[in-house]
Amino acid sequence: MKVRISIPGTIRQRVGGKGEFVTDAGTVKEAMSALVSQYPDLRDYLFSGEERLRNFINMYVNGDDIRTMGGLDTKLKDGDTIIIVPSVAGGGPESELTLNEIMRYDRHLIMPEVGVNGQKKLKAASVLVVGVGGLGTPAATYLAAAGVGRIGLVDFDRIEFSNLHRQVLYSEEDVGKSKVEVARTRLMAVNPNVVIETYPVRLDSSNALDIIRNYDVILDGTDNFPTRYLVNDASVLVGKPVVHSSIYRFEGQASVFMPGRGPCYRCLYPEPPPPGLVPSCAEGGVFGVLPSVMGSIQAVESLKLILGVGEPLIGRLLIFDALEMQFRELKVKKDPSCPICGSNPSIKALIDYEEFCGLNRNINSDEEIESDLLQSWLKEGKRVEILDVREPYENQIWQIPGAKHIPLSQLRNRLNELDPNVPVVAYCQVGSRSLAAVRLLKEKGFGTAKSLRGGIDAWAVKADQSVRGH
Amino acid sequence: MRWYFIRFLSGLIHDIVQHSEEGYPEEVCGVMLSPSDTSDLVISLRRMKNSHDGPRQSRYSIDPMELYAADNEATKEGMLIVGIYHSHPDSPAKPSKFDLDHSFPWYKYVITSVVEGKVKDTRCWAMNNDRTAFMEEAIVEVEIRK
């Protein structure tokens, strides 16, 4: 039978520029054999292995796909036309490694614990970094460098000048900019192969499940109890492991909370501490390099979970003391009566975490004073005793001029230094210790005592720029 | 020495960008046409339908018969399909493994990276002859002097 093969324009150059090829053939296979015996270049494009048509090459006989007929054995009649059309397809990235990635991750690829398969696992994996501060920036940097394919960043904050002594992803020119936006730019520069997703939002009960659900591992770099409990509960509810760390001055803690395999944060700490008892970094300070150590440990644990290698920190609380340079470890048991991950959980949906942590406590309006009101009192010459309840080393950094200094820890024993007839305004760094001081004072007969809302931080911003001039 | 580049008549890259952004968050695709005797100068584009029958956010395919028709039409007009462009919504303008497995050494591949609806990157790739990797080619836009 005489048949025609119509050659697509793009491979025409390989058949001497001809648009068609005429041959004698009883089947499609015979026609193709004739074609490739005359133009051997074409064989590799049309066939894989011996006689199998490549799956992206389509052939039609008089407009019908040969796959729906007899394939290459489809019989031909005199005058039939065979059309060869490449099936053009493509798409976004899969978790295969590109040449660039093979070079970039060479030192991973040659380790048996990672290798090509492990690196592909990293590429296919996603980690949500909650809080892009002291812990989150080193953690996210190593995750990006290691090739974790998708990294989510959650942080509502903008970069502050006082972040720079530990949050080394940011520079001085970034002050005032959104943390997640700057972090995204920097991380993309570290490794353009990874996808960085940003959430410049405050993680709360309304959005946490939707965000956390989209990631394989949750890295908790938060600096406050409400968010920490929220991340824990949401992750338990959607079954995601949390790589946890918290830091205070020279000490850091880390653990991995894996639903179904070990305890959760609530098993470790069923109740948050009373507000004001555990100071935040803003209040208590932090040794600048400490979060980098702990954030790196979090990155290590996250990568191990993805790779499925080693012993994760499940059921163990690692405690790092930078002053003593010691790592200690505590065993953490799963609490069978845990309200979220226990056998009979009472928490089945997210709750109000501010309230749970006592932060929505009703502060009586007579317990606090705004810094601008205090400022105008001072301008008016109103008689007022300003009381600094911070520790002596804090008092040395800066203080409100004219303030009396009695640390909270000594207040109970030094009440005789205060005149009950003069209104007291107590302050600390952010306004939580001073609130405790005011409650103590009121109990002891200083009925008009008030706490400076937001502490000296708020005062410095709002009222007295000269305080910053220390 | 071979210089790796592809020339586009000025304005055509803009058309690819526009098509990519219009189609976001789905992938869009089209063919690039050259005069049949000057295969490194793209003078025209044809939009193709993304006929992939699954999620089109990370896949495209061109119906073979639509491609065949475009190929025939190009031949009639003295042109040749020299390449395919497509978009990568929210991923880099680099060929994926899937692209590698489904590409042909005789086409150039232009890929746009569309992030949150805006094209951030446009790159051109050509496969080596043993079909194992892509080489990047520089995109050069040229003006035709009258």
Structural summary, described in words:
The complex is a heterodimer of chains A (470) and B (146). Chain A is an alpha/beta fold. Chain A folds into three domains: 2-86, Beta-grasp domain (Ubiquitin-like (UB roll), Roll), CATH 3.10.20; 125-356, Rossmann fold (3-Layer(aba) Sandwich); 368-469, Rhodanese-like domain (Oxidized Rhodanese, domain 1, 3-Layer(aba) Sandwich), CATH 3.40.250.10. Chain A contains 18 helices and 21 strands. Chain A is elongated, with a radius of gyration of 33 Å. In chain A, 40% of the residues are buried. Chain B has one domain: Cytidine Deaminase, domain 2 (3-Layer(aba) Sandwich), CATH 3.40.140. Chain B has helices at 12-23, 64-76, 97-101; strands spanning 5-9, 29-35, 41-42, 44-48, 59-61, 79-89, 108-115, 118-127, 134-142. In chain B, 46% of the residues are buried. Helix content of chain B is 21%, strand content 41%. Chain B contains three helices and nine strands. With 146 residues, chain B is α/β, with parallel strands linked by helices. The model of chain B has no long low-confidence stretch (mean pLDDT 86). Chains A and B meet through strand 7 and strand 8 of A and strand 5, helix 2, strand 6 and helix 3 of B. Strand 8 (89-91) of chain A pairs antiparallel with strand 5 of chain B.
